[in-house]
Predict the structure.
Amino acid sequence: MEEDYRVRMARLYGNKRANRIFRSPPIYDLIFSRLSPADSIRLSKTCLSAYNAHENYSERCYNIDKLLNRFFSRSKAQAFRLLQARTATVISGSTALQFIDRIVYPGSDLDLYTPRQHALEVGRWILNDGYKYKLEPQQPDFVKSAKEVAKDEGQDDYVKGKDYRTNGISGVFEFRKGNKVVQLIASKHSPFHSILSFHSTCVMNFITYEGAYSMYPGATFDARVAASMGEITDKELRALAKYQKRGWTITTNVQWQAAKTRKLFFIDEPRWVMDKHSFRIPLKPINAPPRQFTPGSVEMDFDPILCNSWRLTSDSKVNNTTGNFFVSRLLKYRYMFGDKALFMDVIKYLKKQGELEFRRMQLLGYHPDYVEASSQWNWWDGSLLGAYERHFALSKEEREEKVKQLG
C-alpha cells in the first residue's frame, strides 16, 4: 500500500527537477520531438507536469490548420473540415503519415479519399479555391467524369490511365495550383477499403474532420516496420523503395518476423478502427452539425469510416487485409466487417428494421424499388458506432464465444 501511495504521489506532483523541465516549452518540445508518438504518450502518464506539457506540445505540433494551409487558402481550413464532415472525405496517403509522424516530406501531394457519390462536390470545392483540373485523356471533363464515377457499380479494375492496383477506386482526379498538387480519389466502395488496399501498413493512416488515426501505430512509428500487401505493382514498388529509404523495414511476410515484431500486426485478430491497438489524435474541435440524411434518419455525429473492421492475414506467400463488405438499402455508405459475430448481429438487426421500413413505405404508397429517393426513407448508419462499441467492449473470449455460437 505504501509503495502504491508513493507512486500515486509521484504521478500527481512529480519532482522539482522534472517539474522545471515540463514547465519550459523549449526543453520539453525537444524531448517530445525525439520520441515516437506512443513513447510521448507513455511519458505524459508519468506525472501531472508531463501530462500538461504533452497536451500543450500536441496542440501545437498536431495543428491541422497548419497542414491545410499548405494546400488551401489560409481562411479555408475550417471550411475544408466541414466539407470533410459533410462528405465523409478523409486525408490519407503520405500526408496522414507525415502529420502523425510530425515530419514534412518536401514536395508531397495532398491525397483525399471520398465516397464516389461525393467526388463532384469535393472537386468543385477544390476548384473554387483556385486549383485547375489536370486534364486526362480518359477524363477530359471533370464534371462529366465525376458524375460517371458516382454511378460506377462495375467490377473492380485498374483505374484507366493510372497505375493503381485493383482496390475499389472508381476514379483519380488531379488538381494543381502552382507547385501544389491535390489528388482526389473517388472510392468505389469506401475510403476505408481503399486505404486497407494500400501497398503497405505504414500508410494505413487517415485524418477525418475530427481526428487523425493510425491502424498499426506500434509497427509504423515505434518499430518502423511495414508489411507489404499482396502482389505489388511497379508504381507501388517505387513507393515502397521511398519508404524504405525513409527508414522503414518492409516485410513481405509477417510470419517470418521475430515474435516481438509479429505481435505488432495482430495477425488474424478482428480489428476495429477505434480498438485499443489503433492510435487516435484528437483535432481542434469544429462546430460540425450532426448529419441527418432525412428527418427520420438516425443522426450521425461521427465519420462513417469509424464503423469498419478487418483482419490482417499472413500466409506462406503474402500479407493481406480481409473483411466482408456490407451493402444495405438501409445504409447510406458501405462498410467492411472483419468480425463475424458483429457482422451477423448487424445483419440480424437491419433485416428486422428493414422489414418495418419497407412495410411503412408501402403504406405511404411508395414502390419498393424507389424508396431510397424519398425524404420519408430512414437511414440507419448512425446506429452502427454504438453496435461496434458494445461488441468490442466484450472481452476477446466473449467475442470468440459468440462466433462459436454462430457456428
User: Anything to note?
Assistant: Residues 304-406 form one domain. The chain has a mean pLDDT of 90. Residues 340-363 form the longest helix (24 residues). The first strand starts at residue 90 and ends at 92.
